[in-house]
């Protein structure tokens, strides 16, 4: 119950800050007569020990007519595991991060973290 209350408080604070959280839903963005879809799914990860809250059927609802669909999804594994095979109409996905096991090495020409042995996409593109 405490976890649910905390989550509701986080959502309320984000709303107060002016953020429009997309929780398995979408918005249409229209500029100069052209329209694209911004789709936002809740957390869904292939290897995650956390529950899969993402519901893509709701996220893509009523977007068939949109020529471009941009998906926001926290875990980059969502792209290869579910989006590519089941939702090819989505053009690109922007995701959060896998935390890199909270450590890594980065210089101008080199980047490494032990997380690369688990996740294909773990830093940057």
Q: How are the secondary structure elements laid out?
A:
Blueprint lengths: L1 H15 L8 E7 L2 E7 L15 H4 L9 E5 L3 H10 L5 E4 L9 E2 L4 E2 L13
Parallel strand pairs: 2-3, 3-4
Antiparallel strand pairs: 1-2, 5-6
Question: How would you characterize this protein structure?
Answer:
There is one protein chain. The chain is an alpha/beta fold and 125 residues long. The chain has helices at 2-16, 56-59, 77-86, and strands spanning 25-31, 34-40, 69-73, 92-95, 105-106, 111-112. The protein has a domain at 20-95. It contains three helices and six strands; from the N terminus they run H-E-E-H-E-H-E-E-E. It has a four-stranded mixed beta sheet with strand order 1-2-3-4, with no helix packed on it. Strands 5-6 form a two-stranded antiparallel sheet. The protein is globular and about 45 Å long. It starts with a helix and ends in a 13-residue tail after the last strand.
Give the overall pLDDT as a whole number.
91
Low-confidence stretches: none
What is the string of helix and strand elements? HEEHEHEEE
Radius of gyration: 17 Å
Number of strands: 6
Q: Which structural class should the secondary elements be placed in?
A: alpha/beta
Lateral strand order in the biggest sheet: 1-2-3-4
Notable traits:
6 strands; 125 residues; four-stranded mixed sheet; two-stranded antiparallel ribbon; 23% helix; 3 helices; alpha/beta
Write a brief caption for the model:
The chain has helices at residues 2-16, 56-59, 77-86; strands spanning 25-31, 34-40, 69-73, 92-95, 105-106, 111-112. The protein is an alpha/beta fold.
């Amino acid at each position: 119950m405490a976890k649910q209350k905390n989550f509701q408080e986080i959502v309320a604070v984000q709303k107060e800050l002016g953020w429009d959280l997309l929780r398995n839903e979408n918005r249409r963005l229209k500029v100069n007569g052209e329209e694209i879809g911004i789709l936002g799914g809740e957390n869904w990860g292939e290897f995650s020990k956390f529950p899969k809250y993402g519901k893509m059927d709701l996220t893509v609802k009523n977007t068939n007519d949109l020529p471009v669909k941009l998906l926001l999804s926290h875990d980059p594994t969502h792209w290869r595991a579910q989006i590519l095979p089941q939702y090819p109409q989505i053009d690109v996905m922007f995701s959060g991060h896998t935390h890199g096991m909270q450590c890594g090495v980065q210089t101008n020409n080199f980047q490494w973290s032990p997380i690369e042995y688990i996740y294909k996409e773990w830093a940057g593109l």
